[in-house]
Amino acid sequence: MALCAALPNLKMGRAAATMDMVEALAEINRARPAYRLDIGESDVEPPEEVFEALRRVGDAPYGPSEGLPELREALAGLFGVDRDEVVVVAGGRHGVSALMWAFRKARIITTRPYYPGYLEIASAFDIRLDFADTDEGRGWSPQFPRRGVYLVNYPNNPTGAVLDRAKVRELVDVAEFVISDEVYRDIAFVEFESPLKLSPNVAVVYSFSKVFSVPGFRLGAVIAPRDLARLVVKFNRATVNSASSVLQKAVAPLVPEIPRMAARLSEIYRRRVEVAKRALGLKFVEPKGAFYIFPRLGCSGVEFLRRALQRGVSVLPGEAFGSSDHARIALVLPEDRLAAALSALNGTCPSA
Ligand SMILES: Cc1ncc(COP(=O)(O)O)c(C=O)c1O
């Protein structure tokens, strides 16, 4: 079918050696495992303040396409930019979509393993994505092969890598422009360096999904130079008109609390990495942020998922992230249940 030919990695039958997210999730839902370590939906409760603030919101008007002034102001303070450089969007994925659409005539380079959402967005807008390889032996350190528009994600999904300052400098020096997907910036176990601090040619994608554990809010922001910010507003008008005004009102007063919440969250996930190091018999590069581990396997990711499901645990196959001999395990259960789930995976498929 012509549609499938245009989406080479996205549609495969059950026996195929590869698998996309949609198929993996369908298989997981059929199996109904006792322990879900697949999608990046945290078990950590949203802060009570978020729901208290929601109860205080009295009306639900259309909002301005660039976002409510109070939320843009608060985010401008958090990122150290002007309010004109902040546009509120309907979640991190919407922000990445707006920026990829703005650069649709360029060839965009992203690192591999990659977040599968980038492929979905690229295919929707007919964008040609190129891949920059990363070196697992050096903490998934990326190579930036040539000048171009880069789309990077640190702390990284699925590897947990965070770039050090020298590497961020290398990136901004080689890039014409950097789209920096920072939806996990609040979950870091080392100091996180944003390219935004090093170059004017950077746009950041931010999201409330992870920091407040509210992925269903579909609320995020793009921080971008003014001309590009105007294109993001245009994309908002064409798609959602504005992100939810109700949710914007609720989260605006909580933005100054983000550094405190981030410290708490980072500590929760740092401890879970320690649990994983003790409980899981597979080798993985220790993550420096986000809430995933990406162990190397002695079998394919698809095979690992099927065997894991037989033991009542779901993971995502590395194939969905462009790496067939890995699996992504999301650390989204409390420590005791996480230890039990990871122990159940031992012997499923040995380390490579
Ligand atoms: C790397 C990356 N970017 C973007 C997103 C999308 O975030 P949101 O829920 O805010 O759309 C995710 C979600 O898991 C992600 O892992």
Summary tags:
352 residues, alpha/beta, Aspartate Aminotransferase, domain 1, Aspartate Aminotransferase, domain 2, 2 domains, eight-stranded mixed beta sheet, three-stranded antiparallel beta sheet, 13 helices, globular, disordered N terminus, binds pyridoxal-5'-phosphate
Molecular structure report:
There is one protein chain. Helices cover 38% and strands 15% of the residues. Residues 1-16 have low confidence and may be disordered. It has two domains: 2-44 and 260-345, Aspartate Aminotransferase, domain 1; 50-257, Aspartate Aminotransferase, domain 2. With 352 residues, the chain is α/β, with parallel strands linked by helices. Strands 2-9-8-7-6-3-4-5 form an eight-stranded mixed β-sheet, with helices on both faces. It has a three-stranded antiparallel β-sheet with strand order 10-13-12. Strands 1-11 form a two-stranded parallel ribbon. It has helices at residues 2-5, 21-31, 48-56, 69-79, 92-102, 116-125, 165-174, 208-211, 226-239, 245-251, 258-279, 301-310, 335-345; strands at residues 35-36, 86-89, 108-112, 129-135, 141-142, 148-153, 175-181, 202-207, 220-223, 292-293, 313-314, 316-317, 327-330. The radius of gyration is 20 Å and the shape is globular. Strand 3, helix 6 (116-125) and strand 4 (129-135) form a beta-alpha-beta unit. The protein is built from 13 helices and 13 strands. Helix 3 crosses helix 10 (245-251), helix 5 packs across helix 9 (226-239) and helix 11 runs parallel beside helix 13. Bound molecules: pyridoxal-5'-phosphate. Pyridoxal-5'-phosphate is lined by residues 40, 91-93, 96, 115, 117, 153, 157, 181, 183, 207, 209, 215, 220.
